[in-house]
């Protein structure tokens, strides 16, 4: 005999079904979310204190480098910074968490998320951008969000209190990122690029294999932390289906025929 009446068990089930899944259980215990390949990356991206520290570190470096580059800037053209948006300025981890917990994949619901214009800011972004603005630096937001998302994206950036947000500064998908950067560079001196994906920095990283990207990173090693400021993004990228190269543990302990050294005898008390 159950200690609870049947109607109570039914009521609990109905209430549980009515709770939005994002609030119902974010522990990703046994269930579909626990097997989602994005779970650990999304958890690291949204919840880890280390990612927050890395984001602040990136913008601290960006601020220091901008001041150094401005001190060395003697051209007649206005200096500029170019930033990506998603996972660089805007934090889409609530959307990523919903996709894991509710079991859907990008691009499902992406337009609704963008149209809501509720993406919070990446820590450090606003302070850096206000600093750049105060120092007379032109700011360009170069993102591969679609052109139809322009109004919502501008609303999101303005709601978050960012400077120099306009239809001129927010440049969404159409021309490639390289073409947009080149167009900006015709009129401005681009001092810094800030992004979470390598094609935010150089076209050499666009549409190439991971091996080529990794080799190019090594060739451009001196640019990182100097002209290129990289933000962490553990949620998505072209690495998500990469093959892992595993160490093979030996089938049995390696034979070691050398006799163990005898432990030295304890010193005799003199
Ligand atoms: Mg991005």
From TrEMBL:
Segments for region (Disordered): 250-270
Assigned GO CC terms: cell outer membrane
Superkingdom of the organism of origin: Bacteria
Coiled coil: none
Signal peptide: 1-24
InterPro entries (UniProt xref): Acid_phosphat_B-like, HAD-like_sf, HAD_sf, Lipo_e_P4
Keyword Isomerase carried by entry: no
Keywords, sorted A to Z: Signal
Name by which UniProt lists this protein: 5'-nucleotidase
Species the sequence originates in: Salinisphaera hydrothermalis (strain C41B8)
């Amino acid at each position: 005999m159950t200690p609870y009446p049947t109607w109570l068990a039914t009521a609990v089930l109905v209430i549980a079904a009515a709770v939005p899944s994002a609030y119902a259980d974010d522990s990703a215990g046994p269930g579909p979310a626990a097997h989602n390949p994005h779970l650990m990356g999304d958890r690291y991206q949204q919840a880890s204190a280390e990612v927050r520290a890395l984001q602040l570190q990136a913008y601290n470096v960006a601020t220091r480098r901008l001041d150094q580059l401005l001190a060395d800037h003697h051209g007649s053209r206005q200096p500029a910074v170019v930033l990506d948006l998603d996972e660089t300025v805007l934090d889409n981890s609530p959307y990523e968490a919903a996709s894991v917990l509710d079991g859907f994949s990008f691009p499902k619901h992406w337009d609704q998320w963008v149209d809501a214009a509720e993406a919070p800011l990446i820590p450090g972004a606003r302070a850096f951008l206000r600093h750049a603005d105060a120092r007379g630096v032109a700011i360009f937001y170069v993102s591969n969000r679609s052109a139809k998302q322009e109004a919502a994206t501008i609303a999101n950036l303005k709601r978050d209190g960012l400077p120099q947000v306009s239809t001129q500064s927010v440049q969404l998908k159409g021309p490639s990122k390289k073409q947009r950067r080149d167009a900006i560079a015709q009129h401005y001196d681009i001092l810094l690029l800030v992004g979470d994906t390598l094609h935010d920095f150089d076209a050499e990283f666009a549409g190439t294999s991971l091996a080529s990207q990794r080799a190019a990173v090594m060739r451009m090693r001196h640019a990182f932390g100097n002209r290129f400021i990289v933000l962490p993004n553990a949620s998505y990228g072209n690495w998500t289906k990469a093959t892992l190269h595993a160490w093979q543990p030996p089938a049995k302990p390696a034979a070691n025929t050398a006799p163990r050294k005898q432990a030295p005898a304890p010193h005799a008390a003199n």
